[in-house]
Fold Enoyl-CoA hydratase domain-containing protein 3, mitochondrial.
Amino acid sequence: MAEVVSFKKDAATGQAPISVAVNDGVARLTLANPPANALSIAVMETLMDELDKAAADRDVRVVVIASTGKVFSAGHDLKEMTARRGDGDRGRAFFERTIRLAADLMLKITHLPKPVIAEIDGLATAAGCQLVASCDLAICTDKSTFCTPGVNIGLFCSTPMVAVSRAAHRKQAMEMLLTGETIDASTAKDFGLVNRIVPQEYLSQVVQKYASVIASKSPLTLKIGKEAFYRQIEMPVEEAYDYAARVMVENMLVRDAEEGIGAFLEKRHPEWTGE
C-alpha cells in the first residue's frame, strides 16, 4: 500500500504544492499546483525537503518527479516574481533568492545519492525544462513539448541553459535558447533531453518499470556510480580514467560487489545490504 502525504501549503494558493507517494522503494514526488505547476518558492523548498527525506530513507531507492495537469512545469512563477518589483530594491533580493534556490534544487538532484527520473506529460518550459534536464533519466509522452522561451520576453534562460547544455547537444541547446521555440517529444529525444517517448496511457507504467529495475540494484552501487558519472563527465579524458579506476577499485572492495559477483558466479539472486 502506497504512503501518501501532503506537505507545506503555498501561501498564495492555500494548496499543498507537492504530493508524495512511497511504494516498493520508489518515492514519487508530484507537482500538484496546476495549471502551471510553477516552481514557486514554496514548491522548490518543498521539493528540496522531500529530496532530503528520500536521500535519508534507506527504503527509498529511486525518486520519480511527475506532475498533474497538462503542464509538467512552466518554470518560475513570474507573477510571484513580478509582484516584488515594487520592493525598494526593485525585487533584486527576491530574484536572487529565487534563482539561487532553483540552482540549489537542480544541484540537489545531481548530488542526490539515488537516481531521479522525470516523468513528463505536457509542456516543460524554462526552469521546468531545466528540471527535466537535471534529472538522471527523463521519460515523456508523445504529446509532451519542451522549450526555453526566455529570449521571447527579454529574459535569456541563463540558468536553465546550465542543465540543458549538459543534457542536449551543444548546437541543439543553442537552438532552443536562441529561438525560444517549442520542440516536440521526438525532437527532444533527438536533442538528448529525454530517454524514451511513450503513449500517454502507458507513461506511469513505463516509468514504474524503469524505477523498479533500478531499485532492484545495490543502493550503494547506485550511489557510487551516480556520483562518479557526474564527476568524471567534467574531467579531461585522462583524468576521468584515473578517477574512474580509483572508484572501481574501491567499489570492488565493498560487500555488495563481493555479494553480486558471488551471486553471478553461483547463478543466484544477490542479497544487497547496502554496504
User: Anything to note?
Assistant: DSSP finds eleven helices and eleven strands in the chain. Residues 3-215 form a domain with the 2-enoyl-CoA Hydratase; Chain A, domain 1 fold (CATH 3.90.226.10). The two ends are 28 Å apart (CA to CA). Residues 4-8 have pLDDT under 50 and may be disordered.
